[in-house]
Design a protein that fits this description.
This protein has about 300 residues and is α+β, with helices and mostly antiparallel strands. It has five helices and 18 strands. The strands form two sheets. It has a nine-stranded mixed β-sheet with strand order 3-1-2-4-9-8-7-6-5, covered by helices on one side.
Amino acid sequence: MDYTCYYNIAEHHIKITFRDELGADNEKFIASFQPFKTRERVGDLLFHLSVESGLQPIEQHTEHIRDFDTGNGNTDVYLLEGGGYQYQIKDINGQECCLLQTNKAFTTCKCRLYGDYNTRRYGLNNAIMIAYAFSSAYQKTVMIHASLIRHDDKGYAFTAKSGTGKSTHTSLWMKHIKGSDLMNDDNPVIRIIDGKTYIYGTPWSGKTPCYRNIKATLGAIVRIDRALENSIDKLKPVEAFASLLPSCSYMKWDEEISHAICNTVTEIIEKNNIFTLHCLPDQNAAEICHATITKG
């Protein structure tokens, strides 16, 4: 018997139907989604994903686009006849976790989960994230790899290469900048609605269990750059684009989705301040950053 759930993530509504033998038990794989769950469908759906134990890989008329390292595993991407996609998601040990098939716009998706609790959990979370990131691209929405602080009802997103210190910097804000709280620590979502820019918590927060269904006006985006002394620069538009785009969930091999994301990033830059913080992991860095980016 089918078991259907609805979720509201950054004011986008999604539907997930479990059509395998586990039914409602599948929800244990996406426990982080509970704060985003709604009792029924509200508004237009962003996408519908069905989990089906009998789903088989499509091997005819496919083109291998690329494989990419997510940092926690490897994913192979195939272009399907008609413009849809097939993803084969594996974990860091090379264990197959999920088979995902989508239509071109990512509005209709199917997936099959493999293995034990950990591989199924990893596979389902990644399948939903992929479907969300690319179906929402057409609606002035981008998912970014960032740690997100809220201060005075505004959200400040800190981006950086993995291991550079974005989570360290947000922890400094929470310790030293009064009134700061963590909204998300890995994959917040930015949306432009009626000409205004908002940033949201999501069910995807990396190693930090921060799954908050909250929204704030975007205050600024700051790229962290380790340095021997603390300073901060406001970026020019071209510099800001080059800084922000690599932090977005991005599919450069798909011209339509790529174009939509680039347009949204451009509009974000036009409406908001983008900075680079050259810093040490200390209190002074947080204070300098706070004093600068909260001015406007």
